[in-house]
UniProtKB/TrEMBL annotation:
It comes from the Bacteria. The active site is at K364. GO terms for cellular component: cytosol. It is an enzyme of class 2 (transferase). Catalyzes the first step in hexosamine metabolism, converting fructose-6P into glucosamine-6P using glutamine as a nitrogen source. This is Glutamine--fructose-6-phosphate aminotransferase [isomerizing]. It is found in: Cytoplasm. GO terms for molecular function: carbohydrate derivative binding; glutamine-fructose-6-phosphate transaminase (isomerizing) activity. It comes from Runella slithyformis (strain ATCC 29530 / DSM 19594 / LMG 11500 / NCIMB 11436 / LSU 4). Residues 46-186, 211-359 form the SIS domain.
Length: 369
């Protein structure tokens, strides 16, 4: 087992550090920024249908559902197609409205999640085309879907999903860019820029990982916090949800993720000097708004950890702790901003003496309904 962990203390840490490679693998043979090519083999026969689709429905559970929420923003922003993201477990029991020209994307690391499998079968029975985004090759979901794209993240052993999440987001983003290009909803210039920016992500992830020691110090300070709030806007809202889920599942600390603007509709009542608040506050279209959300929390003595874009000079002066991520195109930010949150959860869980790779009550794949 020690050999399999490759010198890391836990599989989760190894998998977090594998992300520059796993993200690159999820683009290998698909993105070629020099030749300006983006091709997803599994999508080829469905590209025309996808380009004409009226609606995309995304189904998944847990972290895979969070990847779906990120994809909703990216598809709508670039390809201008309406997207609905559903918990597979709710979708399947709700008599959902599905049309034959809907394109359903099922996301699953394991490819064995019972609720996601059942949601696919239901959508299939209504005539929809189902596309799978799975990590495990030959899994039940990969076989049940009409077509798909593997995430190629490699085996994920830690129960808490890390590299599978970023690979899912990378594949879904490639789909959105390909679709936007086909539909003509992005300019050639933006298309080229996105391919370049995608290709640069692995090296930028490498850079984020260099903050591990600094994140460890922050984790030390908050090891015994009883609660955490994670706030983000836009694309960073699903990142907030994912950060909170990661912390809950491996450290057993109660954590909530919210869209930052929703704070004033309730959660703000929780804020005092004992409440750590993680803001995912990168430079994007909601930057100014999130700056005022940070002020609201600081005015109530909340302790703020902020994930910011490198070179930000404003937020560091307002908050208690800062973790920087490099600049990238707005739709790619979750691929960078989610990584410090994985490390923060990991180090807090280790410091609390938790069984990081196999947290209590959880299984790597949930094959029961
Ligand atoms: C993630 O850290 C969790 N362990 C869990 O939420 C997981 O993402 C969910 O069970 C879905 O699994 P799947 O991707 O294999 O379908």
């Amino acid at each position: 087992e020690a050999i399999e962990k490759g010198g890391y203390d836990h599989f989760m840490l190894k998998e977090i550090f594998e992300q520059p490679r796993s993200i690159a693998d999820s683009m290998r043979g698909r993105v070629n920024s020099q030749e300006e090519i983006l091709q997803l083999g599994g999508l080829r026969d469905y590209m025309d249908k996808l380009a004409l689709a009226k609606r995309i429905i995304i189904v998944g559970c847990g972290t895979s559902w969070h990847a779906g929420l990120v994809a909703e923003y990216v598809f709508e922003e670039l390809a201008r197609i309406p997207v609905e993201v559903e918990y597979a477990s709710e979708f399947r029991y709700r008599n959902p409205i599905i049309h034959a020209d809907d394109f359903v994307i099922a996301i699953s690391q394991s490819g064995e999640t019972a609720d996601t499998l059942a949601a696919i079968q239901l959508a299939k029975s209504k005539g929809a085309t189902i596309f799978g985004v799975c990590n495990v090759v030959g899994s039940s979901i990969a076989r049940e879907t009409h077509a798909g794209a593997y995430t190629h993240a490699g085996p994920e052993i830690g129960v808490a999903s890390t590299k599978a999440f970023t690979a899912q987001v990378t594949v879904l983003t490639q789909m959105a860019v390909a679709m936007a290009h086909k539909r003509g909803t992005i300019t050639e210039e933006l298309y080229r820029q996105l391919l370049l920016d995608l290709s640069a992500i692995p090296q930028k992830v490498e850079q984020v990982l260099k903050a591990a020691d600094r994140i460890k110090e922050i984790a030390y300070i908050f090891t015994y916090a009883r609660n955490f709030i994670y706030l983000g806007r836009g694309l960073n809202f699903p990142v907030a949800l994912e950060g909170a889920l990661k912390l809950k599942e491996i450290s057993y600390i109660h954590a909530e993720g919210y869209p930052a603007a929703e704070m004033k509709h309730g959660p703000i009542a929780l804020i005092d000097e004992d409440m750590p608040v993680v803001f995912i506050a990168t430079k994007d279209s909601s930057y100014e708004k999130i700056v005022s959300n940070i002020q609201e929390v600081k005015a109530r003595k909340g302790r703020v950890i902020a994930i910011v874009t490198e070179g930000d000079t404003l937020i560091p002066g307002m908050v208690d702790f800062v973790i920087e991520v490099p600049e990238t195109h707005e739709v790619l930010i979750p691929l960078l901003s989610s990584i410090p949150l994985q490390l923060l959860s990991y180090y807090i869980a280790v410091m609390r003496g938790r069984n990081v790779d196999q947290p209590r009550n959880l299984a790597k794949s949930v094959t029961v309904e």
